[in-house]
């Protein structure tokens, strides 16, 4: 079960693009050193170390005791490999929550735009698999929640199955949105 996050300061911490990518790589690959993350993300090792310490401060990552070669070799892992459940609406009601939510939404929207732009513009001749799914279906709110849970279970099974540092694998991003179509939202607001 995913860890429920209610603290707006945690939301602000994970809104940082480098920290968000670190969390993604730790989820995909498992325990990593700052130097590993530095190479993956193209950031200096001291910057990766700083962001790891910030994530640790909020309980999102922890040292993977026993994974390092010695006491000086720090290896990091997710504090909870099942992921996070962010209740942004609840966080917005807390002091500082609205500002934290705005920062998080802005960063998340920018990242989503980058992913979509890349998916539509990259060449298919590079040998890397890409897919875009745009499917419409009619659901009740309860059915939408059930579909989300089923898809999440499938994705989490794949994360567990493929986690590790296999040099043949790339880190993929799976971005999915399930929401009423924009013209349908007006109908629910009027009801």
Automatic annotation (TrEMBL):
Signal peptide: none annotated. It comes from the Bacteria. Pfam families: HTH_20. Residues 9-92 form the HTH arsR-type domain. This is ArsR/SmtB family transcription factor. The lineage of its organism: Bacteria, Bacillati, Actinomycetota, Actinomycetes, Propionibacteriales.
């Amino acid at each position: 079960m995913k860890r429920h996050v209610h603290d707006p300061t945690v939301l602000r911490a994970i809104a940082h693009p480098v920290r968000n990518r670190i969390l993604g790589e730790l989820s995909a690959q498992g325990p990593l050193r700052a130097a590993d993350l530095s190479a993956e993300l193209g950031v200096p090792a001291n910057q990766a170390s700083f962001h790891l310490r910030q994530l640790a401060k909020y309980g999102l990552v922890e040292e993977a005791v026993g994974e390092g070669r010695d006491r000086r070799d720090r290896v990091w892992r997710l504090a909870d490999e099942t992921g996070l459940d962010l209740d942004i609406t609840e966080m917005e009601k807390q002091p500082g929550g609205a500002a934290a939510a705005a920062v998080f939404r802005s960063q998340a929207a920018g990242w989503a735009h980058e992913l979509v732009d890349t998916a539509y513009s990259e060449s298919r001749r590079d040998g890397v698999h890409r897919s875009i799914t745009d499917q419409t279906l009619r659901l009740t709110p309860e059915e939408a929640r059930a579909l989300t849970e089923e898809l999440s279970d499938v994705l989490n099974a794949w994360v567990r199955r493929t986690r590790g540092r296999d040099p043949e694998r790339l880190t993929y991003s799976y971005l999915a949105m399930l929401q009423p179509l924009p013209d349908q939202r007006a109908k629910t607001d009027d009801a």
